[in-house]
Write a structure and sequence with these properties.
The protein is of the alpha/beta class. The protein has helices spanning about 30-40, 55-65, 100-120, 160-175, 195-215, 225-230, 250-260, 265-280, 290-310, and strands at about 20-25, 45, 80, 85, 120-125, 130-135, 140, 150-155, 180-185, 220. The strands form three sheets. A five-stranded parallel sheet has the order 2-1-5-9-10, sandwiched between helices. Strands 7-6-8 form a three-stranded antiparallel sheet, with no helix packed on it. The protein has a two-stranded antiparallel ribbon with strand order 3-4. Helix 2 packs parallel to helix 4. The protein is globular and about 70 Å long.
Length: about 325
């Protein structure tokens, strides 16, 4: 008896991820779930240098600014609720110190610019088609930073606008890194504050636009995170208490599907070795001075040494 519908997935035939890959992850909070997994397994990653970005226009702005090496100045930031912010980035970068924020933004620009040029894979997770336009400057913002909503216009991006934005993102990235693989996915996090129907409209716009622009021959791909959550994990037991975000079980499930599709066999074996080491490092002995524990530590260090001899960038 089959009690679950399965999203059909085939292993990626070309441009798979391995331990030589350099991965940049940009986008909604689900990109951080995947990014945290990649970090745990010691892949070379850059994860959301400007914080969580929910919609395509915000990602386009950051990619454009990074490739053109924009320098942030006082004109790009503002003071609100005792902190300095920029409309281009998430509030996690905000600071009570103006110079600290500017330094952080310009360091993020430099890092992102370098990584976009050298990355083997860029994973872009789109969360919503809904945007907020700051009325005073007529600009689309990445984050409202708790400024009163009356100062913004709320709009939904059309499929055509999203397609144009994604085309621009691809072209910008390919202009400095023609061999990179760009992998799109749609976040399974539901933005029901926009409304239930509005969330469905939003996700459908994203999905249609992505499929308008992906082309494996151009090394642009799609991974069905959203579909796996909606079809294979169709039950509230796979959500956190807010009934909106995927819980740990769901994240692990989607991660396993990602593994089966996008990782080489050699990298999967290395990941198993790293997981053994990570669990060993997390182990807390009742008797740290015992002979058995000292032998355990010695064996663990030997495993780390063998792994680092093969993958020099790995550190624990």
């Amino acid at each position: 008896m089959n009690l679950q519908t399965q999203v059909p997935l085939k292993p990626q035939q070309h441009n798979q991820l391995d331990y030589q890959s350099e991965v940049v992850l940009i986008g909604s909070c689900f990109s951080e779930n995947i990014g945290n997994k990649l970090t745990y397994y010691k892949f070379k990653t850059l994860q959301n240098p400007f914080g969580i970005l929910f919609h395509p226009k915000a990602i386009e702005t950051i990619v454009n600014n990074a490739i053109n090496q924009k320098e942030y100045t006082e004109q790009d930031i503002f003071f609100q609720n005792e902190r300095w912010h920029t409309f281009d980035a998430h509030s996690s970068l905000s600071s009570p110190d103006k110079n600290e924020l500017l330094n952080c933004l310009n360091e993020a620009i430099n890092t992102t610019s370098k990584q976009l040029k050298t990355a083997s894979h860029i994973v872009i997770t789109l969360g919503t088609s809904w945007i907020y336009r700051f009325i005073e400057s007529d600009t689309i913002v990445a984050n409202c930073h708790k400024i009163p909503q009356k100062k913004f216009l709320k709009e939904i991006l059309s499929v055509e606008e999203i397609s144009e934005s994604l085309d621009a993102i691809n072209s910008l990235i390919k202009s400095v890194n023609k061999n990179v693989s760009i992998l799109y996915t749609v976040s399974p996090v539901r933005h029901i504050k926009d409304g239930f129907i509005e969330n469905q409209r939003s996700k459908s716009h994203l999905l249609t636009a992505i499929h308008n622009i992906i082309e494996p021959r151009d090394k642009t791909y799609y991974f069905p995170s959203y579909e796996i959550m909606m079809d294979e994990l169709r039950d509230y037991r796979f959500y956190t208490e807010d009934m909106i975000h995927p819980n740990t079980t769901a994240i692990n499930y989607i991660w396993e599907k990602f593994n089966q599709t996008w990782f080489t066999n050699d990298s999967l074996q290395t990941m198993n070795q790293i997981e053994i080491i990570q669990k060993g490092l997390a182990h807390r002995s009742f008797n740290p001075n015992s002979e058995a524990h000292q032998k355990f530590i010695s064996n663990l260090q030997e495993k780390i040494k063998i792994l680092k001899d093969t993958h020099t960038h790995i550190s624990f």
